């Protein structure tokens, strides 16, 4: 019933109805017209871009001119080095993504300004291995649902010490915060490992489900060794290693059964490994058992450590939880 003295005319009612329909159709079309990107195209490009970064990493090391500086210290007081390998790799990877996917959000470890240059090669359109191994490749995702995390040089400390087996470049594609494509490239072995959750992988699974071997950061060996023995018994072995990418892959090689990190760690270090584990039905969580969110809007720092395993993740988490609570 209209207020006293107010009468709605048929013309007015019709006009309101038409405007309402126009509003619905306009914003509905805006929603359905959102830009989308092929996930397979991101996988093919990500492999190529990680390898481009790896070329720079290897070149700088082979020239013997790392130009090492310090970015500061970790919470534990360890030096955080920065080299030309980090910067040149970051430049190559960031320029490549900006050239081929200008509207996709990319988060990198390095914050140096990167300008797009005209002669950057576009992303390849085909990768024979991906074409062979991927199932259901015709998947497209809205651009604004995607965050790409890149680590242009993982294990920089080991890089400066020529412990090159630990060095990787990494790309991770997260969809609505979930790690979905993981790419880990080893530039000094010229090998690239990748998984697309639910669609395919080139990683062989030689994991062990019943061992008590824990892989940890070299800088945290003493602290985690004590925790591991308290949680898993005196027969537990602790393997120190550099680089989160290396440690994630070690789970597939049977080198270790669980990867543990007890302090904060950056998301560009772990996103690719998290995606690779998800495809293998493994898990990487915080020490509290929480999933890690890789949305661009969140913090780039995971403050709550991590537990990663292909098998028996919940068992490891429970035993560690009893010690760390």
Topology:
Layout: H1 10-32, E1 36-38, H2 39-63, E2 69-73, E3 79-82, H3 84-100, E4 105-108, H4 128-133, E5 140-142, E6 146-154, H5 156-160, E7 168-175, E8 178-186, E9 191-196, E10 200-201, E11 213-217, H6 221-232, E12 237-241, H7 244-253, E13 258-261, E14 265-266, H8 267-279, E15 283-285, E16 301-302, E17 306-309, H9 313-324
Parallel strand pairs: 4-6, 11-12, 11-13
Antiparallel strand pairs: 1-5, 2-3, 6-7, 7-8, 8-9, 9-10, 13-17, 14-16, 15-17
3D structure, described in words:
With 325 residues, the chain is an alpha+beta fold. Helices cover 38% and strands 24% of the residues. It has helices at residues 10-32, 39-63, 84-100, 128-133, 156-160, 221-232, 244-253, 267-279, 313-324; strands at 36-38, 69-73, 79-82, 105-108, 140-142, 146-154, 168-175, 178-186, 191-196, 200-201, 213-217, 237-241, 258-261, 265-266, 283-285, 301-302, 306-309. The strands form five sheets. It has a six-stranded mixed β-sheet, with helices on both faces. It has a five-stranded mixed β-sheet with strand order 12-11-13-17-15, sandwiched between helices. Strand 7 and strand 8 (178-186) form a beta hairpin. Helix 2 (39-63) packs antiparallel against helix 3 (84-100), helix 6 crosses helix 9 (313-324) and helix 7 packs parallel to helix 8 (267-279). The radius of gyration is 24 Å and the shape is globular. The protein starts with 9 loop residues before the first helix and ends with a helix. The relative contact order is 0.13.
């Amino acid at each position: 019933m209209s207020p006293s003295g107010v009468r709605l005319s048929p013309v007015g009612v019709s006009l309101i109805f038409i405007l309402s329909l126009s509003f619905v159709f306009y914003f509905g079309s805006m929603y359905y017209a959102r830009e989308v990107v092929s996930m397979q195209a991101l996988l093919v490009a990500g492999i190529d871009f990680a390898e481009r970064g790896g070329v720079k990493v290897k070149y700088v090391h082979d020239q013997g001119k790392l130009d090492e500086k310090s970015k500061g210290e970790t919470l534990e007081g360890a030096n955080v080095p920065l080299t030309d390998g980090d910067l040149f790799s970051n430049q190559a990877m960031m320029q490549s993504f900006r050239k081929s996917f200008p509207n996709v959000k990319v988060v990198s470890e390095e914050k140096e300004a990167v300008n797009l240059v005209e002669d950057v090669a576009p992303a390849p359109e085909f990768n024979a291995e991906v074409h062979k191994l991927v199932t259901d490749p015709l998947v497209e995702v809205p651009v604004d649902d995607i965050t790409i995390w890149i680590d242009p040089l993982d294990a920089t400390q080991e890089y400066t010490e020529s412990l090159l087996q630990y060095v990787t470049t990494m790309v991770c594609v997260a969809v609505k915060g979930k790690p979905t494509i993981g790419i880990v490239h080893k530039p000094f072995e010229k090998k690239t490992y990748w998984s697309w959750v639910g669609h395919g992988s080139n990683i062989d699974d030689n994991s062990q489900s019943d061992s008590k071997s824990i892989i940890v950061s070299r800088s945290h060996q003493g602290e985690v060794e004590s925790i591991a023995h308290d949680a898993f018994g005196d027969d537990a072995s602790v393997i120190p290693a550099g680089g989160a990418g290396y440690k994630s892959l070690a789970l597939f090689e049977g080198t270790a059964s669980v990867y543990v990190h007890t302090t904060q760690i950056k998301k560009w270090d772990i996103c690719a490994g998290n995606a690779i584990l998800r495809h293998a039905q493994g898990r990487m969580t915080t020490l509290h058992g929480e999933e890690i969110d890789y949305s661009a809007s969140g913090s780039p720092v995971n403050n709550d450590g991590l537990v990663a395993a292909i098998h028996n993740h919940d068992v490891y988490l429970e035993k560690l939880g009893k010690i760390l609570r």
